[in-house]
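thought: fold this chain, then report.
action: predict
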Amino acid sequence: MKTAILYASKHGAAKKCAELLKYKIFGSELVDIKEKPDFDVMPFDTIIIGGSVYAGRLRPVVIKYCAKNIELLKTKKLGLFIVCMMEKGQAERELKNNFPAELYERATAKDYFGGIFDFSKLNFLERFVVRKIVKVKESVFRIKEEKISAFAEKLR
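observation:
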């Protein structure tokens, strides 16, 4: 069974989660769809798609990729993930609202993996928003490796 893990990351959290998934799913191929927006998933049996969420919106390249390839993706075993700092209900809503309903309903695995506020990678405006709105004053690393392990297990 061939697995492709497609992701898009702004500051590296989604990339880190995708790399952790690759480690847990032996033989999988890791693809940054910002660099390969026309990546062909036809030869793969299982497709995992994910990305980071900012202000409630998934990375635009992920949304565009899903829309462009929806019919092909519906024929594959599918996993969907987001990386965000929201918890439980809000994170689950963001996961559901950011992927097409047709893919979300068909996905064998779907989850959120936590997130990272890494002040060294945020620009001035992003740091300002995180401090004022989110009330976080320093870098926070909250990747949920147990969720990534459970996600990988569902797709095996």
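thought: worth noting. The chain has one domain: 3-116+144-155.
final: tokens above.
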